[in-house]
Design goal:
single chain, alpha/beta, Rossmann fold, seven-stranded mixed beta sheet, 8 helices
């Protein structure tokens, strides 16, 4: 594993202690719920919650009837998630750039506000495409570069304050180019509504393998 990956893992190990605390944590979970709703998960579908954090999204996916697997690199986040009975035996530690799954393993992938922390962005996106079944869907949410709040939160705070210089966010046009380059057959990249500042600073992606 790369030193960059270890560094980001340690960042989330610390954050796992207070991830659910405060209004920002509530807003992140609300946006995660929106991404899961957009995925329209049917009972019995195999769903990867990539960057699963403390397991909130994977738990919600399981409640919809989806067969959920949660993957994260942070041991702290996985420790928190492992306390959820519904996720017993369904959590893995791994690298988004080298997913430990066979081609076409999943019907859906949900990835919320973790993509910008992956040191190798295009390889991670190609891995998502690889492990999706033909016609499977990626539902991804991440901060966007073409919005002041998204730029400030990532480029100023995470890069400058926390020293996570590998963190990268992308504009809407850049997302369309990357999804095409990674051979997704179709993609829709939306932004949040103007009345919700945090949502507005995010891209909401639905891409079909």
């Amino acid at each position: 594993m790369s030193e960059e990956l270890h560094k980001h893992g340690r960042f989330f190990d610390v954050w796992s202690r207070f991830y659910r605390a405060g209004p920002f944590g509530l807003e992140l979970r609300r946006i995660q719920r929106l991404a899961i709703e957009r995925a329209r998960i049917a009972p019995g579908e195999r769903v990867l919650d990539l960057g699963c954090g403390p397991g909130d999204g994977a738990t919600r996916i399981a409640q919809t009837g989806g067969v959920t697997i949660g993957l994260d690199y942070s041991e702290g986040m996985l420790k928190t998630a492992s306390a959820v009975p519904a996720l017993s035996g369904r959590l893995l530690r791994g690298d988004a750039g080298r997913l430990p799954f066979a081609d076409g393993s999943f019907d859906k992938i949900v990835c919320t506000n973790s993509f910008h922390h992956y040191p190798q962005h295009l390889p991670a996106l190609r891995e998502m495409r690889r492990v999706l079944k033909p016609g499977g869907m990626l539902s991804l949410v991440d901060p966007r570069k073409d919005h002041l709040f998204g730029w400030a939160a990532i480029d100023l705070i995470e890069n400058a304050v926390f020293g996570l210089e590998e963190v990268r966010i992308f504009s809407v046009p850049q997302w369309y180019r990357m999804l095409s380059e990674c051979n997704f057959s179709s993609a829709k990249v939306d932004v949040g509504p103007w009345w919700s500042p945090v949502e507005r600073a995010e891209v909401f992606i639905q891409a079909t393998a």
